[in-house]
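Record format v2
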Amino acid sequence: MIANTSKPPYYAIIFTSLHTNVVEGYDAMSSSMIELAKDQPVFLRVESARNELGITVSYWESLEAIKAWKHHLEHSVAREKGRSDWYTKFKVRICNVEKDYGFEK
Amino acid sequence: MIANTSKPPYYAIIFTSLHTNVVEGYDAMSSSMIELAKDQPVFLRVESARNELGITVSYWESLEAIKAWKHHLEHSVAREKGRSDWYTKFKVRICNVEKDYGFEK
């Protein structure tokens, strides 16, 4: 769902990916990584959608939090598996969210 | 597809949305807005995926470019239509992309 983040500034990681035909293990690992990320101290929220292209945006309080997540052991194992099995291509963008606004009916 | 952006820094707009049951006119307007954005002078690229949640990320060279796009007449009309007909909720996040890296098989 739409992430209920705190006031800017905060950080976002935009992860955009194209998948191989290998699906085995992907959903389980993806859910496991989201649960693991939620346990990290300054992880805020995550948003995800996928058609041919997959987009996952996770929100974090600081660059330090992002670095710690990058070096988390289980996450590193998952990333290796992603490179070997699940992704043909991906791009990671580290962003400083400077401003946000919303609309709700 | 995955956007082939230039080297950071550049800007991203993360647009996350939940839709109403009204679909009439949406796809046509969405395509038309993407084409219009591509005609703007410092628009870089766009990425989009949608399940229940829709995520569209567009990339721009500067905040000035984003402001000009926000005030573009046709885009303003589309945004009003979005609020009245197509979206129950959305969030817009303006981000400075500080770093990026990718992987390709």
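The mean pLDDT of chain B is 92.
Chain B has one domain: 10-97.
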